[in-house]
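Sample log: ABC transporter ATP-binding protein.
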Amino acid sequence: MIVVENLHKHFGGFHAVDGASLQIEKGTITGLIGPNGAGKTTLFNVIAGVLPPTSGRVTMDGEDITGLPPHELFGKGLLRTFQIAHEFHSMTVRENLMMVPAGQTGETLWNTWFGRKRIADEERALRAKADEVLEFLTISHLADEKAGNMSGGQKKLLELGRTMMVDAKIVFLDEVGAGVNRTLLMTIGDTILQLNKERGYTFVVIEHDMDFIGKICGPVICMAEGKKLAEGSLEEIKSNEQVIEAYLGTGLKNKDKVGA
């Protein structure tokens, strides 16, 4: 589904992504792990159009999407969430969901004058869809709450809800567990699995919690120094000598500490 070929992203003399090549298969939940500074988030940002690549190529379903801006990729079904949730804190949870779909009738001045019935019909449909999403996420009780009052974990659920308001094909999740308590993290994991199985979403997940990676991910890719270092099941990754060296700078004698 996504093919990354010899991707580079340089910041002056620093090579944050340094010739990374990898593939994300449709219908998978792929874990992306690696030590701090490995280039994981920068790779996400380049794929999702937040940052332009220095060189290299990204394709989605065979189409070259290298360097396309986020709004164009959004229209193609490629979405990206952030380690720190980007909610509109003064709007309600429901309103945060309703504003996601692009090209709404009420966005133009002409339509606000002459298309009021169409706008009203559209808003009713968006409200119904938002309420359906909130019920799916089991946070219907927060519909009228200001999004800024939600907990960190609830905001992560809201970000998943945004992907459900459009026809998402692949979602890049950056440290979904950051600032989230253990119970809610498992709820988020269950939601990701459900979206994958029932709605066909493909996910790529950056996460340091190996228990969470083990719960939801099939293939796992490990990055180090801006490149793909290894790929396989979590158990294969955890027993890979190169991965252990990247995390610990030591040999196999400490391999049980990887992901701890």
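Observation: Confidence is low (pLDDT under 50) at residues 250-257.
Observation: The two ends are 31 Å apart (CA to CA).
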